[in-house]
Amino acid sequence: MKKHITLIIIVVILLSFFPLSIFLKGNLYDKGLDEECDTCKATAILWVDYTRGRELPFHAITRNVKVYAEVSPFGKVEVLSYCKKQTMKVESYLKKRLEVFTIRKNVMEQGYVKPGRQYLQLHYVVNWMN
Fold it and tell me: Between the CA atoms of 53, 64, 114 and 33, what dihedral angle is there, to the nearest 10 degrees?
């Protein structure tokens, strides 16, 4: 009886040291687009919901989301994939904002953002999501 109890205690101790993901073969966590997303730097940071003249609240919380997107020559941005998994609320908010968002013409002419597929940081204000 004592041998069974000590054996059970040893098994419990060993199991407590190993994370659950080892036993689930890593399928528990989604790594996003791929490993290239972590190594590539974003070419530009775009404020998708802030315009000049609009005042940010003092306590405003802002967030960045790294995406792989296609920029048209006219300044429209289409998200192809997110580097990290986002909540449905964030994805739908960014989709709604990008429908009306265009990159300014002078930014495109100066070469800060070039047309084509690239990694971008989309900057948004969390307080304005509601």
Answer: -160
- Number of CB atoms found within 10 A of residue 129's CB: 16
Report pLDDT digits (tens) over 66-97: 999 999 999 999 999 999 999 999 999 999 99
pLDDT at 116 over 90: yes
Q: Distance between CA atoms of 34 and 31, rounded to whole angstroms?
A: 7
112: tokens are: 């800060």
| Residue labelled with tokens 């940081």 | 121
Kindly list the strands in the beta sheet with 116-125, ordered across the sheet, starting from the edge strand earlier in the chain: 44-47, 116-125, 62-71, 77-82
Q: How many Cβ atoms sit within 10 Å of the Cβ of residue 86?
A: 16
54/50 Cα distance (integer angstroms): 7
